[in-house]
Amino acid sequence: MKKELTSIPYSVLDLATVIEGKTPADTFKNSADLAQHAESWGYHRYWLAEHHNMISVASSATSVVIGHIAGATKTIRVGSGGIMLPNHSPLVIAEQFGTLESLYPGRIDLGLGRAPGTDQVTAMAIRGERMNAANSFPQDVLKLQAYFSAENSNSPVRAIPGEGLDIPIWILGSSTDSARLAAALGLPYAFASHFAPAQFLTAIQIYRQNFKPSEHLKTPYVLACVNVVAAETDAEANKIATSLYQLFRGIVTGKRMLLQPPVDNMDDVWTEYEEEQAGQMLACTFTGTKETIAKDLQQFLDQTQVDEIMATSHIYDHQARLTSYKLLSEVFKGI
């Protein structure tokens, strides 16, 4: 049966982007404002991602920012997309998210990834002697589940708060490894197609084929994150999107900057090689008017049959970012 955009949930991934000329304090204020608007526009969840040592990303203390967003909203689900679990003790994450769930009951999601969310030198500073912690990621996910279980009350180590709380755990991925783990544990699967689309189709196929029902989830559930820049005209959207392109040029070259203002012509900014490399990472990017994005996103849904679409929007001007998310909500509402 054909899936329609109007039949699936739509959500927000906020990378807490710091723009040129502003500070993280400005970012957090704008994130709360966006979350409040997203809630009023029918967005299902609002996730933040753990990154470190990146001047353009302010969500390094992810659990703290989740609390800030949850406190500024009333009904929208708020969570991590994701917490990089090998950077942390499972017990500490259980306590942090147990605290969040106790403060904002029924609204907290815990998405887990295994990457460091940073460069190797910074990962060493975070993990120290636990540099190989990614190898124990599957076991650490099971530990987290145990800490959240009511049965853990007889254990010598308990997560207080956290124990006995129903906090949905998601497996995040940008490769096929995570797909196999999510399938084996019977957990929902969120794929980072907004920057790592190469293995997306293969990964979700592996996940669906190998999925084992669990007490948490009876059938496979795939969330895809994509880039969206929507505006009143295609030309305006294409110009606004040049901030996103400059951001990815920084990733390609290793010269990261604060989110830059739009430019008239990207050919003045990047080389053909940089454009090609960034273009491969940005394959799942939707830019244009409401009508353009509705058509392109429906084709994406036809191809992937995902259960939920999460949009991230690296847009320099806050009002333009709000407009983009409002237009996207209308696409999903069929307005």
From TrEMBL:
Keyword terms of this UniProt record: Oxidoreductase
Top EC category: oxidoreductase
GO molecular function term, any single one: oxidoreductase activity
InterPro entries, per database record: Bact_Lucif_Oxidored, CmoO-like, Luciferase-like_dom, Luciferase-like_sf
E.C. no: 1.-.-.-
Occurrences of domain Luciferase-like (ranges): 22-301
Pfam families linked to this entry: Bac_luciferase
Keyword Oxidoreductase applies: yes
Protein family per UniProt: To bacterial alkanal monooxygenase alpha and beta chains.
Protein name, UniProt field: MsnO8 family LLM class oxidoreductase
